[in-house]
Write a structure and sequence with these properties.
With about 375 residues, the protein is α+β, with helices and mostly antiparallel strands. Helices cover about 25% and strands about 35% of the residues. The longest helix has 15 residues, at about 355-370. The chain is globular and about 60 Å long.
Amino acid sequence: MNTIAANASTASVDFLPLHGTDYVEFYVGNAKQAAHFYKTAFGFQSLAYAGPETGVKDRASYAVRQHKLTFVFTTPITSQNPMADHIYKHGDGVKALALMVDDATDAWEQTTRRGGVSYMMPTHLEDEHGKLVMSGIHTYGDTVHLFIERKNYKGVFMPGYRKWESLYNPADTGLLYVDHCVGNVGWNQMNKWVKFYEEVMGFRNILSFDDKDISTEYSALMSKVMSNGNGYVKFPINEPAEGKKKSQVEEYLEFYDGEGCQHVALATNNIVATVTELQNRGIEFLKVPSSYYDDLLSRVGAIEEDLDPLKELGILVDRDDEGYLLQIFSKPVEDRPTLFFEIIQRKGAKSFGKGNFKALFEALEREQDSRGNL
């Protein structure tokens, strides 16, 4: 693994200051049902609704929230809509990674001046609660980044939405915020998108993994982790590498029919409690062989958690120079083997679990093999 440190000039100048992920928007076939699923299974709460009843005629959107984590599920009202084409091609998946900024107009001007392709010019949305400004640019595949400026808006979510109140409000599961979002890109495309994040958005490459780091007997991939200046937003980029059989990235690209967001990593402060509750609500997770835990403490050193619940749940542990982390990956949350979620708890570690790659990707391969896609 190569760790690339930011030089002084890169670290001191951040022309695109980001304050974190504002929300993640999914284009789905049935937004009402998707919102219900994420409330039931993941513990989100109803937040806001937009649709024909609120003056939005071409779509229905349901926003749900858990702590600082906001998801939006959007579905087109009719088939004569580009969103319908997107869903037909890709299935349910991430469309927009929306980022918090102080000035959405400046963010758009800065990024398009540096070569970003505009998705949305600066747009002012107003209602009785104030004014919100948003803009956006394209990134890999059909995915976009939106820049959201909220400093003059006090409403529940954004203009065009109304508060969504429901009698059905399951308890949360301890999910706190987006830790990182991983994109899968095509053959020989990783460095192109690394360059995009460096030049267009001012990110830096903080970690690199080659096919020696991320490989099994059958498949391999390469990955580079891109981070903004303050480290609040991280986007690992994966591409396939040569192997005996089809890698997880190749499977994703085939079934998503293009490049896109492979998984969203969700942070928690108590991974055992969170995963136990998610599992009780029906979320399925990848399992590693029990032998993974036989020499765990000799590999990662002392940890605060008891090994037995980690082993029972299948939670992985890795350590870097800053501390350690605990992580686990769900199975795909829909029928296409595309989108899944990572649950992560950081105990100081800034890395992404290099020591778990082999065990994790062997688990992924077992799932691929069961689908006949290895």
